[in-house]
């Protein structure tokens, strides 16, 4: 993803011209594929984790961002989600 980010910035001349932006916009422009965006703050933690796990099983390319720094993310940065692992305790996802 780092190499794609550099290519995307070069396509837009430099990083200054990106003006932050959104991960779905850059993925759509780079790949031509449709993208899906959802707000994790409007979902329960269990639904969010299960949704991400389902997408990971489909081998979808995923990114995450947070303008305010939720879930330990630094606000205003785009992250690549490399995979999702469900941890279970006595059969329940934790």
Q: How many separate structural domains?
A: 1
The overall pLDDT average reads 79
Instruction: Describe the global form.
Output: elongated
Order of strands across the main sheet: 1-2
Q: What's the helix count?
A: 3
Beta fraction: 5-15%
Cα(first) to Cα(last) distance is 28 Å
Structural class: alpha+beta
> In terms of per-residue confidence, which ranges show pLDDT below 50 for 5 or more consecutive residues?
none
Largest sheet report: 2 strands, antiparallel
- Would you count the extended β strands for me? 4
The percentage helix is 25-40%
Secondary-structure element series: HHHEEEE
| Rg computed from alpha carbons, rounded to a whole number of angstroms | 15 Å
Any descriptors?
two-stranded antiparallel ribbon; two-stranded antiparallel sheet; 94 residues; alpha+beta; elongated; 4 strands
């Amino acid at each position: 993803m780092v190499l794609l980010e550099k290519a995307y910035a070069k396509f837009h001349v430099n990083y200054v011209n990106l003006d932050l932006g959104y991960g779905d916009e850059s993925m759509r422009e780079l790949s031509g594929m449709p993208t899906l965006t959802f707000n994790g703050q409007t979902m329960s933690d269990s639904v969010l984790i299960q949704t991400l796990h389902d997408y990971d099983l489909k081998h979808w390319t995923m990114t995450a961002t947070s303008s305010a720094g939720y879930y330990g993310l630094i606000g205003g940065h785009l992250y690549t989600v490399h995979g999702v692992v469900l941890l279970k305790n006595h059969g329940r996802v934790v």
